[in-house]
């Protein structure tokens, strides 16, 4: 079943957003500080960090947050995030 975004929240960091998703991406928290750290077996982690402009990722029960590069634009990244979520489910 593909993931769907149920809510997006801003964070104090303008380069970070928190995405609430259904179904939950897993109860075991995990994080990747660089795209190279993403475990290829973690389809959500490696899929999201393959998007140019995304830098770090924290995945938790029911949500994930991503930090983008300063030069990247959320309006360009959000559709790519939705595309990846739909493909990996």
**What is the count of distinct domains?**
1
Helix content: 10-25%
Q: What is the CATH topology descriptor?
A: Ribosomal Protein S8, Chain: A, domain 1
C-alpha Rg (nearest Å): 12 Å
Total number of helical segments? 2
Proper CATH architecture: 2-Layer Sandwich
Name the shape in a single word: globular
The tally of strands reads 5
Q: What's the level 1 CATH class?
A: Alpha Beta
Largest sheet: 5 strands, antiparallel
> Which secondary-structure class do the elements indicate?
alpha+beta
Mean pLDDT: 95
Order of helices and strands: EEEHEEH
Q: Tell me the fraction of residues in β-strands, as a range.
A: 25-35%
How is the largest sheet built, in terms of strand order?
Answer: 1-2-5-4-3
N- to C-terminal distance = 5 Å
CATH superfamily: Scaffold protein Nfu/NifU, N-terminal domain
Low-pLDDT residue intervals, each spanning 5 or more residues: none
Explain the overall architecture.
With 89 residues, this protein is of the alpha+beta class. It has one domain: Scaffold protein Nfu/NifU, N-terminal domain (Ribosomal Protein S8, Chain: A, domain 1). It is built from 2 helices and 5 strands; from the N terminus they run E-E-E-H-E-E-H. A 5-stranded antiparallel sheet has the order 1-2-5-4-3, covered by helices on one side.
């Amino acid at each position: 079943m593909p993931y769907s975004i149920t809510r997006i929240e801003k964070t104090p960091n303008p380069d970070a957003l928190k995405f609430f998703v259904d179904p939950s991406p897993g109860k075991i928290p995990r994080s990747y500080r660089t795209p190279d750290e993403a475990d290829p077996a973690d389809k959500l982690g490696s899929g999201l960090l393959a998007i140019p402009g995304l830098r770090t990722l924290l995945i938790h029960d029911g949500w994930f947050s991503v930090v983008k590069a300063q030069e990247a634009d959320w309006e360009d990244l959000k559709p790519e995030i939705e595309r990846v979520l739909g493909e990996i489910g």
